[in-house]
Write a structure and sequence with these properties.
The protein is of the alpha/beta class. 45% of the residues lie in helices and 18% in strands. The strands form 3 sheets. It has a 6-stranded parallel beta sheet, with helices on both faces. The longest helix is centred in the C-terminal third of the chain and has 34 residues.
Length: 288
């Protein structure tokens, strides 16, 4: 017997509490998808096309703040190597929505994408600013949605800056690397790109230019205005063209076929001549 809170005596009766069933989310794929993606049905993806998203800040040798979303180049580079080596992958789609970031890391990713032997298509969604510009032009063909923006401006440096002429020469060399890459992988003239980079009337507290959708296409920076469906349609078209080129290389030419036929006929004729001469030699021996 014990005295309870309301002033009445009651017996202390222990009751077995029902045990809660433990659900292992990792064992149930539907629950895991709900937890991670907010939906239980995730459509399967065609293995012929590998896609890559470059979002947020392009992280370089220094880690980004934990509250920033970032794309790490040490995660991207192994994927690009796998795309090149995997024979089942026939095309590569890059989806961009980035504010820019580390110049070295961004150029490293852009150069690797450009060097892929398989068809590549880029799609700019939201924005592809700063070092995101060469990332967008690195593919064989590029798309931008009508509302997406691209900011072109000179490079910046964080941390300690030594005020000597050598520092500014280094800035100029870094800038030339970016300019050379963009000119090499797009249709925009060098003079126009440098003019946009040094524009002073577009941004209030900085120099540079902001290009929106159609304007980037008019200047030759991006190939076409379009969304996901157009990007995939173009990529599939490029995949079919590459298949036809490979098949043409594997089929021997007509001259090679003639050589093969002539060699086969020559071999058959030489065999018949050898048999005839051997038969004549036997007859001559018998006559003697």
């Amino acid at each position: 017997m014990e005295f309870n809170n309301i002033g009445l005596f009651s017996e202390n009766i222990e009751q077995d509490e029902p045990k809660k069933a433990k659900i292992n989310v990792n064992e149930n794929p539907n629950l895991k998808n709900i937890k991670e993606m907010g939906t239980q049905n995730i459509p399967s993806i065609n293995n012929r096309i590998q896609f890559l998203t470059i979002i947020g800040h392009v992280e370089g040798h220094s880690a980004s703040p934990p509250q920033n979303k970032s794309t790490k180049y040490e995660h991207i580079i192994p994927q690009l190597v796998a795309v090149e080596q995997n024979k089942e992958i026939e095309g590569f789609l890059v989806i961009l929505n980035t504010v820019g970031g580390d110049v070295e890391a961004g150029l490293a990713i852009a150069e690797m994408i450009t060097s892929l032997s398989k068809p590549t298509v880029s799609l700019v969604l939201g924005g592809s600013h700063s070092i995101g510009v060469p990332l967008a032009t690195s593919c064989d063909y590029s798309f931008i949605v009508p509302t997406a923006t691209m900011t072109i401006h000179p490079i910046r440096m964080n941390g300690l800056v030594i005020g000597v002429p050598q520092t500014f020469k280094y800035f100029e060399k870094m800038q030339q690397r970016i300019i050379d890459f963009v000119i090499r992988t797009s249709q925009i003239p060098r003079e126009k790109f440098v003019e946009l980079m040094n524009e002073t009337d577009e941004i209030a507290n900085d120099i540079g230019s902001i290009l929106i959708g159609e304007k980037a296409v008019e200047l030759g920076l991006i190939d076409e205005v379009g969304g996901l469906s157009k990007a995939l349609e173009k990529l599939n078209e490029m995949i079919l063209e590459r298949r036809e080129e490979i098949e043409e290389k594997n089929v021997p030419s007509t001259d090679e076929n003639k050589d093969i036929v002539i060699n086969e006929n020559t071999t058959e004729e030489s065999i018949l001549l050898d048999e005839t001469s051997a038969h004549k030699a036997v007859l001559n021996q018998n006559q003697e």
